[in-house]
Amino acid sequence: MGKRKSSRKVVKKERPKLDTSFACLFCNHESSVTVTMDKEHKVGNLRCKICTASYQAAIHHLSAPVDVYSEWIDACEEAKLEEIRKTTAAAAAASNEGSGGSGERGRRGQQDDVSSGSERGSVGRGRVDRYGVPEQLTDSESEGY
pTM higher than 0.85 for the full model? Predict the structure, then answer.
């Protein structure tokens, strides 16, 4: 009698391990941000060892540390955009107050730029937006000039 045919051993696939330490957005140090996951309280904590920046995010049973890090990146970008919106709104309000309301402003805060022909590269009348960039005139608007 012969032996039984032996079966092959099960080969386990190695899953790639996701990082739990990342680069900080504020101080730009590599591997200085660590993420801890408190699954019992469903909170992910992120903290930089160098600049002590911190962030907390709600997590669920499928969340990984990289998810908390990506939420932190999104929150930082959103905060930056909100700050830009506030500064442009404040600058627009300051420029409106500076004009004194004497009727110098055109439609919807656009200013008519009247230039004399003596300036180099001048093209006559044109509109300038709130950032000082000349706007393109439509055909009907440019016919009168």
Answer: no
